[in-house]
Amino acid sequence: EIVLTQSPATLSLSPGERATLSCRASQSVSSYLAWYQQKPGQAPRLLIYDASNRATGIPARFSGSGSGTDFTLTISSLEPEDFAVYYCQQRSNWPRTWTFGQGTKVEIK
Amino acid sequence: QVQLQESGPGLVKPSGTLSLTCAVSGGSISSSNWWSWVRQPPGKGLEWIGEIYHSGSTNYNPSLKSRVTISVDKSKNQFSLKLSSVTAADTAVYYCARVTWFGELPLNDAFDIWGQGTMVTVSS
After folding, report:
1. Which residues contact B2 (CB under 8 A, 6 or more apart)?
2. Residue A22 pLDDT more than 90?
3. Sign of the dihedral through C-alpha B79, B84, B90, B91
């Protein structure tokens, strides 16, 4: 079973600052990693798939990078609506199962 | 556009069975998508429960497999979750989600559409 470890647990930043979130896999997942944003009381929203592809309607300030075991989600300049919890996710092929990281909370400093 | 809506009892007794349904609107459950269930205990992270394809093929989280059944009803364009022998640890918001394959590579898929979620509390 692949384990995803996200760091830091909490990121305290101000609007306009750059946010860098990390997701590390316990073994290589190639580029098959997705990122989600979740605001309080809302369902998660897909931001990034295949490590670096933005989902439909996602602003360009969100970018993803990485491959193998180390991945990064970058928010180039934080907007007030970006303060939320972010999860990474991967799928294993055999057996076909999905795993989420434990999440990183981006909070207003 | 496709929308998902969860429904079911908000309170389940310990040792009972949790039953939820996810109605798919704006599209067909027989499309080339898997359909998943995810849960989130209060104040905690996301946990994948399982998924189903319209053919009836299923995959489950190994940690829940012995208690989970996911089924599909193509005539009603919906899929369902049953979780047996529930305890307080099963108290969570339960989400249904669509899995979309983005092409080119076999593992290039993700959960692109989610329901709003439904809170289920296990308590006597």
Report:
1. B24, B25, B26, B27, B98, B113
2. yes
3. positive
Summarize pLDDT for B44-84 with one digit per residue, the tens.
Answer: 999 999 999 999 999 999 999 999 999 999 999 999 999 99
Tracing tokens 């080119």 back to the chain, one arrives at B104
Residue A55, min C-alpha distance to chain B (Å): 8
Alpha carbon of B9: minimum distance to chain A alpha carbons (Å):
19
Chain A residues close to B107, C-beta within 8 Å: 30, 32, 91, 93
HEC string for chain B:
CCEEEEECCCEECCCCCEEEEEEEECCCCCCCCEEEEEEECCCCCCEEEEEECCCCCEEECCCCHHHEEEEEECCCCEEEEEECCCCHHHCEEEEEEEEEECCCCCCCEEEEEECCCEEEEECC
Asked if the Cβ–Cβ distance from B107 to A93 is below 8 Å, we say yes
- What are the Cα distances from residue A38, in Å, to A44, A48, A84? 4, 13, 6
pLDDT at B48: 98
Nearest by CB to residue A49, choosing from B108, B116, B117, is: B108
pLDDT at B106: 73
**Whole-number pLDDT of residue A93:** 82
- Name which of B62, B105, B112 is nearest A46 (Cβ-Cβ): B112
Interatomic CA distance for residues B55 and B39, integer angstroms: 24
